[in-house]
């Protein structure tokens, strides 16, 4: 594929096989030139253990470093219920529209599968509801412990717009620093969603080789 396009490539593929592993078939769904940064990014063990981590994942998509984002929009875990996911999606979309109009990229932290067509598995946002996010975090809760989408719903757009995507199960460490998020003053808060802003930019790093990705706050 790389030889055909004379460039590094992104490939989306699917595999099907029988339960015993026989009769396996690999199918190519799409191929295109690599859109993400190819610059090597390394996350040292000391960074991974830092108390300044806001969110971290060993199942991250993307590659690169960003130090420009100060806004965070997150679904409040204490207010989340699966029966309210349509209302949550609408609130997320309104925050996204305002931040895009203001030219402010942001971190979005959602619960369950973002973009799910089944509202009982996550928040049924469309791409237009989250298009201004520079980083998307898909978290789980004990009451919403579903298999992560890992960006499947937005794969094309995540790649094309170089949006980092972090999957953070509630059982993972270091996970998400909800306590720190809750302590930040609200720029605006609705029934289910909070918008907060940091005094100094966050640092976002994703290592596409290892799948590690994290967000750090400034000291």
Keywords:
219 residues; alpha/beta; seven-stranded mixed beta sheet; four-stranded antiparallel beta sheet; 6 helices; 15 strands; globular
Describe the protein.
The chain has 219 residues and is of the alpha/beta class. The protein is 19% helix and 33% strand. The protein has 6 helices and 15 strands. The strands form 4 sheets. Strands 4-11-10-7-6-13-12 form a 7-stranded mixed β-sheet, with helices on one face. It has a 4-stranded antiparallel β-sheet with strand order 3-15-14-5. It is globular. The mean pLDDT is 90.
How far do the termini sit from each other? Answer: 44 Å
Secondary structure: number of strands: 15
Which stretches are low in confidence, meaning pLDDT under 50 for 5 or more residues running? none
Looking at the structure, what is the overall shape?
A: globular
Major sheet size, sense and barrel closure? 7 strands, mixed
Our Rg estimate from Cα atoms comes to 18 Å
**Count of helical segments?**
6
Strand content: 25-35%
Overall mean confidence score, pLDDT:
90
Record the strand order, biggest sheet: 4-11-10-7-6-13-12
Secondary structure class reads alpha/beta
Helix content: 10-25%
Order of helices and strands: HEEHEEEEHEEEHEHEHEEEE
């Amino acid at each position: 594929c790389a030889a055909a396009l004379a460039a590094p490539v992104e490939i989306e593929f699917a595999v099907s096989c029988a339960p015993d592993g026989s009769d396996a078939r690999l199918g190519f769904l799409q191929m295109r030139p690599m859109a993400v940064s190819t610059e090597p990014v390394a996350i040292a063990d000391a960074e991974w253990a830092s108390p300044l981590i806001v969110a971290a994942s060993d199942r991250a998509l993307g590659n690169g470093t960003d130090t420009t984002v100060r806004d965070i929009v997150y679904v409040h875990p204490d207010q989340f219920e699966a029966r309210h996911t349509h209302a949550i999606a609408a609130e997320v979309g309104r925050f996204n529209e305002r931040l895009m109009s203001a030219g402010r990229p942001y971190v979005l932290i959602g619960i369950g599968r973002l973009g799910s067509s089944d509202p009982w598995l996550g928040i049924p946002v469309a791409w237009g509801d989250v298009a201004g996010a520079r980083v998307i975090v898909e978290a789980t809760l004990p009451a919403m412990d579903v298999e992560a989408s890992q960006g499947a719903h937005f794969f094309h757009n995540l790649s094309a717009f170089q949006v980092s995507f972090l999957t953070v199960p509630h059982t993972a460490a270091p996970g998400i620093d909800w306590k720190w998020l809750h302590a930040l003053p609200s720029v605006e808060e609705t029934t289910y969603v909070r918008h907060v802003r940091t005094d100094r930019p966050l640092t976002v790093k994703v290592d596409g080789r290892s799948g590690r990705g994290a967000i750090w706050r400034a000291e």
